[in-house]
Amino acid sequence: MYAYFEYPLKTRFNKIIPKNKIYEKASINTSLKDKIVKQVEKIIWLHKLSSTTLNLNATDNITEIQVFDIELKQDNLDEDVLRAIDKAIAFPIIFQLRKKDKIQIKSAYKRLNEADTSKWIVDKYFSSPWIDISHPKESLPTVLDLEKLYEITIKELIPNITSTNKSLKEEVETHKKLEKLQKQYDLLKAKRSKEKQFNKKVELNTQLKHLKSQIILLNNS
Fold first, then answer.
1. Partner of 30 at 20 to 30 A CA spacing, among 37, 87, 108, 188?
2. CA 8 to chain centre
3. pTM across the whole model
């Protein structure tokens, strides 16, 4: 649960990443640089998961997975800060955000661009709740390759996952569709509560029922 893993000692990298290296590689603007300065205390490249550090095969899509510890100055971290780091590092990254005695596991679904495999697409971020740092860690799942390890890690972070049989890409797309439909539903519901005209209320109810049926159908797909 939560992808809070106990990584083998052999994977330990433990290298502090200077913030200026992120600024250079991600070509960030002044506003984002200010956020990093205000929100981030320290970035540590904690683990390197590869075929040489783990007894797992690399694949064409995933040759390494990095684990970054980010010590926070504030309670939360803007996602565009993580996106800047993801753009600077040409591998999937599992972030471990730390504040006081709490930790949160966070990662984007990151994949190679099929049109240009020298580039990465950084998709939606998923995260665990904030948990106590003393929470027992899980052993790494038993898998054959790094790609499967990455898939399991991200799936553990996706809320209300609909099916373990779907590919990671399918699961992420399903979640994004559900999120969009739920947002539409909530906006319509708020609009209905303010509506005074009976006919318009009936029309909005019909739209809400349709959206609800789509959400249920997608959840059960």
1. 108
2. 22
3. 0.87
